[in-house]
Design goal:
Two copies of one chain form a homodimer. In chain A, about 35% of the residues lie in helices and about 20% in strands. The first copy, chain A, is α+β, with helices and mostly antiparallel strands.
């Protein structure tokens, strides 16, 4: 379905004898649940990025770690590729199956093994849902900070694989900053412990290396996460601006004033109007852009910060600043933001969500650049994103039923990501590279850097059996895709400098 | 000098023809400063861990990156080992030279390239001193958070290599949490950019992998660090306890109450008396242990937290809690702590500093265990450490002039580190493994994990030329050293459970 993707560029995929493999697995693991009919396999053909679909060779649903270990040893011995899947909510096709590979579903490992309030950690199986950890910790006044918008459904194993973020990662960090220890199985069926219960572990930092590696290095079998005490209070300010550039500059001003909001989100007119029509959040429909700024902590401190942020916003040219009067209004302000994607879905038959991350100071210029690219390519772009960390989610609106529109959307998406890289940013903040952005990785990294990635991959998985064709492109792919790499200091968009 | 160290266990070190190498370097790099006489080389024979001394084959002092690049290419072509050195303040022998290797001194790369207040970052050369960054950022109200006690002298390149911590890393994180981007040269002379100016970078997290790799993966050539706004106020509480176990439990109670102090330090009677005699900080000489708890931020918040911490300390059994009356007293309280090591140096001819890190909840039991080991081995141990992050610095007091005392100190040190590993901790928190703790790495990791470390090392440095014999032990070394690996859940110190 995706015109820019070509499987031949990922190296020779082996052909697997499905019937023989099924026999081998059944005799070695008689109580392992295996799906193998077209009808049973079809529901697993995609993850949260449904534009890409591949029916897997087999789906396995283990319930015990010994089954996973034995399965991996068999796959290793027979050189069968393995794609791991948690809840399947990923947005970059990281759990997209392979026609010649096994889809290893870890969803049944859903037990919370330990909540330790004194040590402020939780030890859980990989299939446990993100929100379930916070719910289990709530009686102790604790919670798990990273909150991807899919947190009601997504699993912690998938969060580790993708280094998931969320609205609050500006203050509380990404998944990698909230982990103590991860147990993994290698493709050879060996257990490894990465990290430790202590603050720091000697040797190379394999825990950080593994986090966000998108299933290329090993299978997560147990996760120990840090728990934080719940903030006493949270308040939200809503600021309106008559230009997106002004709103973007206000973001840098807030951070520059030494304030770290719990969340700092931006929506442009197209997205805020869509959200307002859908949710009736109370947004000012005429604003060119709004900022939502949440502050949390102890009461006195939050009040103080609210006053400081309000002053910064007014100086930055906000036409109106409103403090949510009560908890109901705070929740309503957030409801508009959290439903912005489905809201945009109501005003366009299809949309394509980007995930570029840029230095905060480049926000005004990049937003201006996206506006220009949008006009050039004749497609509307709605901007709704984590402004505080510079993690943008431009939504490209198109109609897949109009011939050529999907292709134009993809080309425009590629241009937007190249723009992010050109200002010193990256092609993905929290959604991962997966299958979707594999070509843009050629823009992000040069051949030396990609070679090093492959060498690291080789250290864990010499045969390349874990999730091939995702995250790290082959040099062959980058050669075919074209020399997109933007060298530092050579901006292809020199006019951005003036913002 | 160290009885437990045996170079033969690090694999075959090549023999280098010094005269021929000198000729090669002089003709290829005529303006490179090279030291080669015994007299010139001698000052470089050790870093901050002076118990280990090796005169290097050659010392080079480049001033331009092209010289470093050319030098590395020559070393790679001729298979000459390279040890990088910053300011030489490291405490684990990470920059200990090799008799058959080049010592690459990066101290002359001492320029601050950019202070960017809007982007809240500083871009500096690797030889820039830690404190110099904060000084350069001060006019903008910003500073660089990690503060190793050597910060007046140590260089940022060395901080990256060792993932340096400091008194304030409980709240502000280690070096790895305060980096945006690092430029490195590989042993093959290729430039790599790790990280990006944005919050997150796609692909594997090589920035985190590189940070703390102790010179085994590449040479740091440029560092972009995050800058933080200076806290408005800082206040310190001093609490006295009649037992170390009570003080240790109070540490967990403070963190358990949801308070993150800027610093939370502990000193036992032996170390606080030594410090008091030396500095006259105003410590209670009769206390079994004291805690220093610093709180920083905005005024109202800090006052509020001081009251909460005081209540927690009293409930935990503190016999006295004093708030530093003014800035002068606050500085005096810290001066005692910061001079504790030299103070202990005044009461013992020699001391050996450990750096084990343990889960906070294990503090009472481990302190008790250290007391027992101290009595068993007939050597006094002073405890002064970063209690908040569980990073302990037991100082073993001995007299090197008494036959056998150094050896007994080393054996006791090994036992203390094994104890840390047994409770789920690690053998080093912030000082690194270096040459010093290479044998204890065999206790920390099993053969599979060490094999993976070597595979990762191989991805960057296939010939093993960068800092061989440090950080990651060979399997041969671990086999000779003995099967020290402590498996999870098999505590060799079962009586610790009751604490």
């Amino acid at each position: 379905m995706n015109i820019l993707y070509d499987e031949r560029l990922d190296g020779a995929l082996p052909t697997v004898d499905k019937a023989a493999l099924l026999d081998t697995l059944r005799s070695a693991l008689p109580d392992l649940d295996i799906l193998h009919t077209e009808q049973d396999l079809r529901p697993y053909e995609c993850d949260g990025l449904s534009a890409y679909r591949v029916v897997p060779l087999l789906v396995v649903l283990p319930q015990r770690l010994e089954q996973v270990q034995a399965l991996l040893k068999i796959c290793h011995a027979h050189q069968v590729p393995v794609v791991a899947r948690g809840a399947g909510t990923g947005l970059s096709g990281g759990a997209l199956p392979l026609a010649q590979g096994i889809l290893l579903v870890m969803a049944r490992f859903n037990r919370i093994l330990e909540i330790n309030p004194a040590g402020r950690f939780a030890r859980v199986q990989p299939g446990v849902r993100n929100l379930a950890i916070s719910q289990a910790a709530a009686p102790h006044g604790l919670y798990y900070a990273p909150d991807p918008s899919s947190q009601i459904a997504c699993s912690i194993g998938g969060n580790v694989a993708e280094n998931a973020g969320g609205v609050h990662c500006l203050k509380y960090g990404l998944t990698v900053h909230n982990l103590l220890k991860v147990q993994v199985l290698t493709i050879e069926g060996e257990y490894l412990t990465l990290g430790s219960d202590a603050l720091d572990a000697p040797g190379f930092d394999l825990l950080a290396l593994f986090t966000g590696s998108e299933g290329l290095l090993g299978i997560v079998t147990e996760v120990t996460v840090k728990l934080l005490p719940k903030p006493q209070v949270a308040r939200v300010l809503l600021a309106s601006f008559d230009s997106v550039e002004k709103a973007a500059r206000a973001v840098a001003d807030i951070i520059g004033a030494g304030i770290i909001p719990a969340g700092l989100e931006m929506m442009d007119n197209l997205s805020l109007r869509a959200a307002e029509d859908f949710i009736h959040a109370g947004y000012p429909a005429e604003a060119a852009a709004i900022l939502l700024c949440e502050l949390d902590g102890v009461d006195a401190d939050v009040n103080d910060d609210c006053l400081r942020v309000e002053a910064v916003l007014k100086t930055a040219g906000a036409s109106e600043v409103r403090l949510a009067r009560d908890e109901a209004e705070r929740v309503r302000f957030w409801a508009g933001r959290k439903n912005a994607f489905p809201a945009v879905g109501r005003i366009s038959p299809d949309y394509y969500c980007m995930d570029g991350t840029i230095p905060r100071r480049a926000l005004p210029g990049v937003l201006h650049g996206i506006g220009e690219l949008s006009r050039e390519h004749g497609l509307r772009v709605a901007n709704v994103f984590h402004a505080g960390d510079g993690n943008m989610h431009p939504l490209i609106l198109f109609d897949a039923n109009q011939p050529g529109e999907l292709e134009r959307a993809e080309v425009l998406g590629g241009k937007i990501l190249e723009l992010c890289v050109a200002v010193g940013g990256s092609i993905t903040g929290e959604h991962g590279v997966g299958r979707e952005k594999i070509n843009q990785m050629c823009a992000q990294f040069n051949a030396d850097e990609l070679t090093l990635f492959h060498a690291v991959k080789h250290a864990f998985d010499p045969l390349g059996l874990l999730n091939p064709g995702k995250n790290i492109p082959t040099l062959q792919r980058c050669a075919e895709f074209g020399a997109m790499h933007v060298h530092h200091g050579q901006l292809p968009f020199p006019d951005l400098e003036r913002f």
